[in-house]
User: Fold these one by one.
Assistant:
Number 1:
Amino acid sequence: MQSPRASREQYDALWQELWANCHAGGPMARTRYRIAIQWLGLTAESRGRLLDVGAGNGAFMSQVLHRSSGLEVYGAEFSQAAIDLAHPTLRSRLANCDLQGSQELPWGGHFERITCMEVLEHLPDDQLALRHIAAALGTGGQLFISVPAWARKWGPQDVTAGHVRRYEPAQLRQLIETAGLEVGRLSCWGGLFSALYLRATDLIGPETVMTVNPSRGVAGIAAKLVYQVLKLDSVLTLGRGPQLFALAVKSRDLAPQTEAPATV
């Protein structure tokens, strides 16, 4: 297991060299954001507090604020480099956190909605991380999770991104329930078009694709087109796709944790 310092240096480098563009406008990132907004039922009238865990440079936060200006939106992020890359208007809403440490999440807890997208697969102890997240969720609150699905789909993109694992649906369900939450919805998303896109990414090279600026040039136009095409997979998905989404609910107050959970 890496030391906290080594992990921080690794993810600072990933944000500086690869992730800033793909998280802001990459087709798969935008797809996750769209589905998170749908599953959480966010509208222009939405109110309350939302925390994005693993918020990176605040790309999803920006979309939520644009859609639901009445929400109080905050972010928790491990990498200071990612926070430094955020738009100045978002930086005051972002705070450092370590999901593998002993401290509670920032911003005071009692959130009505929390999102945790493409985070748990990076962590040695995903159970500890989810306990931290569950503790920050208010009673009756909702948690949206996205992780890569199916161990058999392990490939170059997992290696490039520093993943520790991919998840089986039953594995994620058990993880959520162990944290004291109830699974309201869980499904694998993706079909022909996402499979073709991810295969093309492997052939081109994950590093090359991740550095594409989605706001510039031919590559940017292609990224926007792929995002529109991927919307078809929301209709054509057969439950065996590469993305695993879950919506969990905290239906009761959780007892204080008295001992550290076992490392997964």
Number 2:
Amino acid sequence: MGHLILAGLYSDDTSSAIPLLENLGVEPFLLAKWVHLICAQRLVRRICPDCKSPEAIGLQVLIDVGFTPEEAKVVQTYKGRGCDNCSNTGYKGQVGLYEAMEITEELQELISSRVSTRELKRKAVEQGMVTLHRSGLIKVAAGLTSLEEVVVKVVL
């Protein structure tokens, strides 16, 4: 019924891929009709399991970086102290942060109308998309990476 095309672009997030494709000469009405899913990813360092230890971060800092007040009260953050296993970096390996924007009919209309990337992202989040930033906070709360890694690697 058609062709599946996978392409890689360098952009900050999923919604930023649309103007990049437009700059390559793809008309918005074609993007709206033929693009079904846009994914963005970032790799962050994984905390070393051998030297992982709790890290005390203030409640307001957690809220300022995007945790809800309720989440900030219960989240435990971690960091790696550094050990022989991780060459004293505190990190060993990587973990992915992902954002996937499914192009719904409503998003198709917005793309055809050439709305801003901010508006496109806002609508996608309203429809349930998990942003790269939120994906990072989820990984922090799961103890997989540090808050510092997410703040440094993900554009807020």
Number 3:
Amino acid sequence: MTTSEHSSDRVTRRGFLGVAGSTGAGLIVAGCGVKSSSSGSGGATGRTVKLGYVTPQTGPLAPFGEADNFVIDALRPQLRSGVRLGAKRFPLEVVVKDSQSDPKRAADVASELILKDKVDLMLVASTPDTVNPVADQCEANGVPCLSSVAPWDAFVFGRKGTPDKPFKWTYHFFWGLDTIVDVYTDMWEQLGITNADVGALAPNDSDGKAWADPSTGAFPLVEKKGYTIVDGGRYQDLTNDYSAQISRFKNAKVPAMLGVPLPPDFTTFWKQAAQQGFKPRIATIAKALLFPSSVEALGDIGNNLGTEVWWSPSHPYTSSLTKQTAAQLAAEFTKSTKKQWTQPIGLVHALFEVGIKVLTDSGDIDNKQKIVDSIAALKLDTVAGEVDFTSGPVKNVATTVLVGGQWRQQSPGKFDLVIVSNNGHPEIPAGGKVQEL
């Protein structure tokens, strides 16, 4: 095992992401142990193929990168096998960069990966503030890019894309805002909440702007279903006073709320809401409530908070690389890390499944056009479900499944995420019905 930068550093497997986050070093975590045909590899060894990988491993978005170490470690046998094209097997190297939850740094490290590390394919995940600046760098420099874990609407419209003017080099798979609105309104309707005022909490960042966009956002989609949005207004990330938003929601007596705040911001908001006597019947919160740690930070007032579920041990899908089921992958994460499973496990794993598949399908890793052509033609069953770039909804995008869940307190400080809305995806079993806060 070697490093692409600071090669004299002695880095343990458990610590490599922490070092990458603190030093900015890109670390090669695969590509070792690929042998020539004389030692039984079944073909000559070609040049090394480089995958760049950018995620937020530190900063307020760090929960999204929590599973990175585990996923890459679990995929080491497949990554070590490299990519076979005809009689040759090409070793794979993965160069990891930490965005530090900062869009500017995401763009900077992407530029490093493109210009210095000369990556053949960029992989990037987790929120528009990470995905979009990396994808923009790839588009500008003609580097194939695959991304996930950000609503596809934010990926397309947030980068000034349109259905009739698609991107050339950048492709994305995840659910869209229309899908999450369908999930959340189904959860509200299970409580008989229809045609009501709904509180909306959205910051002044890429996610918040995408959700609030009057033409392509989630809020107008909610209003098309007969609800009235009570918008708390754009606020700065890491704000420490939400009295204005809470007062607005209380005055409107909203029975439901939705939003897309940072994890630490919702912790602050919800604690202040409890102190100020604001308690809707249901709260469905994207991004902030994806992770066990976020709910545990709230204690008892976290019970029955709702969120979207894009991956879980209950999802009936299997990895195209390891052949593990979602349940097996989640169980292995808990065994390996001693932590509760978390949703990014499945989508990060799927991102590498798709990346390796498109390189193999390209037939020529030195031809970037063939790589993007293989992305556009890809249709693959992954541990996160089917990824199909041939069916839209727009060019450059493939959609993934989405259901809804609520956090149920099992013991003091410990919560399980229970699926309570599976409309459109009966293959993903529900574990209960929606309950009021």
Number 4:
Amino acid sequence: MDNEKKSRILYVKRFLEEQTDEAHQATLKDILAYLNGEGIAASHRTVAQDIELLLEAGVDVVCNRSTQNRYFVGAGRFELPELKLLIDAVQASHFIPHKKSVALIEKLSALTSVHQAEELRRFLYTDKQIKPLNERVYVTMDLLHAAIRQEKQVRFKYYEYTPKQRKAYKYGGRVYEFSPYGLIWNNDRYYVAGYSRHHGKVITFRVDRIAAPKLTDIPAEPKPEGFDIAKYANTTIQMYDGPLREVALLCENSQMNAIIDYFGEVKSSVTDKEHFTARVSVAVSPTFFGWILSFGGKIRIAAPQDVLCEFRACLEFGLINTDK
């Protein structure tokens, strides 16, 4: 195949991918007009041959045969509802910075025809979601992925916000030595779970609060026996950890959806006509107690007694602990 023919086929492919979809089909005349506009010589016969070669190469070109055959690229690309779903997820994410959101949406829009891309833009709304202020979060993500893959430790600082909305490093800028085991998407934020030498146990850090991360050559601490990242995520409320306990929750019947949303399928039994008891494995912490309170009495701690006493003490003294 000569270079001229290769070039023409690529232009035909580009035209079909960018300019056609099921609602916007093109005739050979349309394709020829495009090629002529690009300074490429062609005829009905050569373009028809080019389309046949594209089909042989696996490009999903659909032909509606009639007095003038009409062509468009079929199911090989994302469908419009799929792209809308992905774009909605990008827009709604608290984790993805605003500039990165705009760039990702542009890339997603380029995965369809110009006609459907224009329709996608009409569905975009002004992004008023709370976005992270840490624009280097993607660099941190890459570094954590590398550390997990290579089973190496990382070092970083961790910050919080002061009442004046200024960043302040935890513990005066302590450098954490951390062995990452996995990344968790929870409550529309990314967390990294792993072993912290400072804490002496497996904990989580919010990825967008990590500062000055560095990958080391130090081997990561081995995972605790039986550690499972999915199970760990399911037992931790909003990524605040505590001692893992088996807790019985007395719930109104209407709250089964909430239990399954947080814990998945659990052991449960009918208590009376209006209540059931769910037995869950959960990291007991003030955050867990706050989660219980959010249901206004529709979900209550039934057992064990020491967890119930801790819950009452938290209520009495207003204990809140979010330190990392």
